[in-house]
Amino acid sequence: PWEDSPRRHHLHRMHIDSFWIDRYPVTNAEFKKFMDAAHYRPKDDLNFLRDWQNGTFPAGWAGKPVTWVSLEDARAYAAWAGKRLPHEWEWQYAAQGSDGRLYPWGDNWDAAVVPTPTRGRELRGPDGVAAHPKAASPFGIEDLVGNVWQWTDEFIDEHTRAGIVRGGSYY
What we know:
The protein has helices spanning 28-38, 71-80, 88-96, and strands at 150-151, 155-156, 161-162, 165-166. The protein is mainly alpha-helical. The protein has a two-stranded antiparallel ribbon with strand order 1-4.
């Protein structure tokens, strides 16, 4: 709202109210508890929990971040858990802090602190949410870069409505 036209880079300072954010993304085990307790089923289930079989996640995936959920699914989980999705600026602040760093862990790319990229046609599935503690942000938030895309609240103005994702996948 402070710009008269869309721009790629924004030079605008803003005040961010205090907020809480989870240390890790929602895991398959946490999402399964929600599914079982709330008897949740999305209105549009195309690709919903595509990695799961027979209503549950693959063996060994309890601590991996849940994937193949829509913005509506993420909101439903958050509401059930008594939370909300972060605004994109809250997610960015939690990831980078206030010192202008490029990555949660600092200014230099470090391939050793993020999941190994996959470039082939077969996806192996994400790493566990606590697998890369050296990539934590200044606030101790983990698993922010290179594992899975993460939903934030959507952007809405007079002309546009869009879901905003942050983080990035290992693919």
